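Dear H.,

Thanks for agreeing to be a second pair of eyes. The structure we're designing against is below in token form, covering all 172 positions.
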């Protein structure tokens, strides 16, 4: 289990630092002067996004998901942490949209949006670190009842009626 934690922490470190690096690259996009500069910045940002940051995100989320099953980690603070990780995923997707938008040389860089996303990444990362290190007490009462009940999804009584059986075809 220690190697799984190592993979998770390494993936998170590379993912978050890569997202912040991408923010710096995208904010400096307006300083591009000619097509050669544009091609260099475009290739560098695409490589960082597709070759480093995205695989690190998959590694972090995959190893974190595996840790949920291996370790006894389903505490209320973990659900809050997963929401903060969801914010990181949305920020990651926003950078993908920004890179698609900046594919044309004449495109203006979305500087305000990138700055907001970078600030959100910093806040979300700080929240994740605080939740993991402090493991604060959070009452179960703030979550819906079905989230606090083990085996809720496996109960026999389903809120939706069962679909009718398929019609039988006559044998000839």
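And this is the sequence the design step returned. I haven't edited it by hand at all.
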């Amino acid at each position: 289990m220690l190697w799984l934690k190592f993979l998770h922490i390494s993936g998170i470190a590379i993912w978050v630092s890569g997202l912040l690096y991408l923010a710096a690259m995208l904010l400096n996009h307006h300083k591009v002067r000619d097509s050669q500069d544009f091609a260099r910045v475009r290739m560098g940002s695409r490589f960082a996004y597709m070759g480093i940051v995205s695989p690190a995100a998959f590694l972090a989320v995959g190893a974190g998901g595996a840790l949920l099953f291996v370790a006894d980690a389903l505490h209320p603070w973990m659900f809050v942490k997963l929401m903060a990780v969801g914010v990181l995923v949305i920020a990651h997707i926003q950078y993908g949209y920004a890179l698609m938008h900046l594919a044309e040389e004449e495109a203006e860089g979305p500087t305000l949006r990138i700055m907001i996303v970078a600030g959100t990444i910093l806040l979300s990362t700080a929240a994740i670190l605080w939740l993991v290190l402090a493991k604060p007490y959070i009452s179960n009462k703030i979550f819906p009842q079905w989230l606090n009940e083990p085996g809720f999804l496996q109960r026999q009584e389903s809120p939706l009626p069962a679909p009718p059986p398929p019609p039988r075809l006559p044998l000839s």
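Two observations from my side: Residues 35-70 form the longest helix (36 residues). Helices lie at 2-27, 35-70, 76-101, 111-134, 145-148.

Warmly,
E.
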